[in-house]
Amino acid sequence: MENQITIEGKTIVSEFPDENISNETELSNFFKDEEKVPLSKLAKYYLNESLNFLCGSGTSVSIGGKTINKDENPFATLIAELKALPEPKEYVSQLIKFLESDDLLEKKFDKINQEYLYYLNNKEDEDSATEIKSYLDKSLKIFVENYVPFPIDYVKDKLSIHELFINKIISRKDTLNRPKIFTPNYDLAFENGCEKIGVSYNNGFRGVHMRKFDPDTFHNETYIKQDSSQKGKRISTYLNIYKLHGSISWQYAESINDLYNVKEVQISDTSKKEDIGFESIMIYPIQTKKSYSLDLPYSELFRNFSKSLTETQNTLVIIGYSFIDEHINDIIRTGLYNPNLTLIIHSYGLINDTSPEFLKTLKNRSSSDNRIIIFEGSLVGDFTNIVKYLIPLNSFIQPKNALIETLKELSK
């Protein structure tokens, strides 16, 4: 299999035998070979003052997540339900058209949502609007059931790569800015990973029994003091996690009565998908209408993402992202106006004529703009391999299993 790495304006083509893909030793040797993977040139960018990650759906494959295939249409049952209505209203044919189209799933949701708003605001037909909203909820439920893993599916035995990822990125010197994870993913893999290894994180919510969204919490710092005479020391093992498109743990709550009306609910490792109320869940995989995701609270999250890319000595590492989200692409494009921003892109496939236009443009620019580094191919674009071999940082926290086993042995 072919992999390509473009760094400092030069492209390295590296071949790896398909038959050795499951050979851990051969795989390790491949990544240790500087002529094939110039890891030494990569290390300095991970030590920049600010380190940011954009983690797309490809980072959830290891926990059972599915990337969205433009050729898939999981709505056959819902389409059949609409076609079977004995006296269909005017909007029904439109919904069928949306669901049967070749559009990406995100665009289908967007069109259904626009139809709902049209009947609610323009036609003032609340009954039809309510019915359309119910079909939007059904389509979101189908989306979650097919594409979004729940903690019950992965917390016990599939989080090791996320744990190692978090472990590595918090190992930087405490004088540097804390790393930030920006993700359009709806699952809780990064949150669960932090909790399993004891790393504190901030996801923009405040409170204990009633956790409500407050973006000011992203600026909070936590300090510890050994005794009253000492100056507090900032906790460095801390992450900010920005869920750009919402989360399965977010719910609309009008009762909160603040600017955002968003609360966070607990989804444990025993919670099942059928226990979730989709009528209030705040996941909107709508990527084609820029106006929609600019509503609160999404505008606050995107504003934080944009601001993070303006900082000096800055690195943005992109993993598992499809480059089809207009909002995110715009922010990356604007971020490149910052001469101090380095972009490290991991693409699971080789970039070619069928790739998204923005990704092709970045590929073309990488040969003359040293700020753009691109890893292409199923080895150097795979989240597991990236975490194991391509993030040049040491693990900081002793794995809990090893610690527990040591304590058990000592207590005998």
TrEMBL record:
Domain of life, per lineage: Bacteria
Protein name stated in the entry: Uncharacterized protein
